[in-house]
Amino acid sequence: MRGNEKMTSALSAVTAAIVGVVLNLAVWFALHVLWPTDGRFDWFALAVAVVAFVGMLRWKWGVVPVVIGSGLLGLLYKTFVH
User: Fold this and answer.
1) Does one domain contain both 50 and 77?
2) What is the mean pLDDT of residues 8-25?
3) Whether the Cβ atoms of residue 48 and residue 74 lie closer than 8 Å to each other
C-alpha cells in the first residue's frame, strides 16, 4: 500500500478527519466539564486535568491508571466535599 499514491493520500485524508473529530470532542468535553450547567467554573476539574496532564508527560503515567485515578478522585470529591 505504501507504493500506491492514491491509497496513501486517501488514508492521509481519513487520518486528518479523525484527528479533527477527536480534537472537537476534546474541546466539547473540556467546555462542559469546566463550565457545567450551573455556569460556575469547576476549579477541581481543572486541577485534576493539569495533574493528569503533567503526570502523563513528565512521569509517563499510563492512560488507564490516569482515567481510573481521575474518576475515583472525582467520585470522592463529589461524594464527600461537594
Assistant:
1) yes
2) 95
3) yes
